[in-house]
């Protein structure tokens, strides 16, 4: 039984797959590094047991709607193409754990992606043209790794606290587009690595003082005022200490900040007495 089919780097313009082939036995299909401009609808519809699909480094402008038939698909690599959007049917790929769409022309992600792709553990969409992430992104509770660097993000979703398993977040190099970070950043209880370098951020949210597991923080290339440069150069622990002290010292006067203190206590990330 031929479960793995490797047609990579063969200078293919079209796929040499005939109608009498039993495609349902294929579990891994690698058609990367070719010159493919389309994946036929009829092909995707017959790959019912596909677990890994690698089509990176082709000339694809769209994905077939029938990709939604791939209910067992766990890994999808479409990086290095010319995709401007995903078909809405991709939300039917509910087994998907790793989605790599780096180096495309994406301007949006499906609005309800976070409600449907609930098993997603890694989402890489760097080097695209994304202006925002759908609010549903914050419902990807299994997500471990989110890479959205080199886009045009203006903001992040407000309610990030649902991303309880997120360990690595890279939002660097959105340059002058990204100027603020949501207060809910401090509720990412599993966060270990955070890269916000090369944006236009002037102040880190005070809540970042509550990121207990944070070990690696990159903030260079921002016009930061809070924390000041002398704190930043001391490293991640000094930054966390500064933000924590700023939060406990200043939250009394702000009802909004008081509500966040309550949330932080609820999530067990903040021990301050206020």
TrEMBL record:
Keywords: Leucine-rich repeat, Repeat
Coiled coil: none
One protein family per Pfam: LRR_8
Gene Ontology biological process terms in this record: defense response; response to other organism
Keyword Cell membrane carried by entry: no
SUPFAM superfamilies to which the protein is assigned, alphabetical: L domain-like
Gene3D superfamilies in the cross-refs: Ribonuclease Inhibitor
Cellular component terms per the entry's GO annotation: cytoplasm
Name recorded for this polypeptide: Uncharacterized protein
Species lineage: Eukaryota, Viridiplantae, Streptophyta, Embryophyta, Tracheophyta
């Amino acid at each position: 039984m031929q479960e793995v089919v490797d047609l990579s780097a063969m200078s293919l313009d079209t796929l040499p797959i005939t109608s009498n082939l039993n495609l349902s036995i294929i579990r891994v299909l690698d058609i990367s590094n070719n010159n493919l401009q389309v994946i036929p609808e009829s092909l995707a519809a017959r790959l019912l047991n596909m677990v890994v699909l690698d089509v990176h480094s082709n000339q694809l402008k769209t994905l077939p709607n029938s990709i939604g038939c791939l209910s067992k698909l766990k890994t999808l690599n479409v990086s290095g193409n010319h995709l401007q959007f995903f078909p809405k049917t991709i939300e039917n790929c509910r087994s998907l754990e790793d989605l790599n769409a780096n180096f495309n022309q994406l301007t949006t992600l499906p609005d309800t992606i976070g409600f449907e792709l609930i098993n997603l553990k890694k989402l890489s969409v760097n080097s695209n043209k994304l202006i925002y992430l759908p609010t549903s992104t914050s419902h990807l509770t299994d997500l471990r790794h989110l890479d959205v660097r080199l886009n045009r993000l203006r903001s992040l979703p407000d309610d990030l606290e649902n991303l309880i398993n997120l360990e690595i977040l890279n939002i660097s190099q959105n340059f002058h587009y990204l100027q603020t970070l949501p207060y809910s950043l401090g509720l990412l209880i599993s966060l270990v690595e955070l890269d916000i370098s090369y944006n236009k951020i002037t102040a880190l949210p005070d809540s970042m003082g509550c990121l207990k597991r944070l070990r690696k923080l990159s903030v260079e290339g921002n016009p930061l005022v809070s924390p000041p440069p002398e704190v930043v150069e001391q490293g991640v622990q000094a930054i966390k200490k500064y933000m924590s002290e700023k939060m406990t010292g200043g939250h009394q006067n702000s009802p909004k900040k008081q509500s966040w203190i309550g949330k932080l206590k609820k999530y067990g990330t903040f021990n301050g007495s206020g």
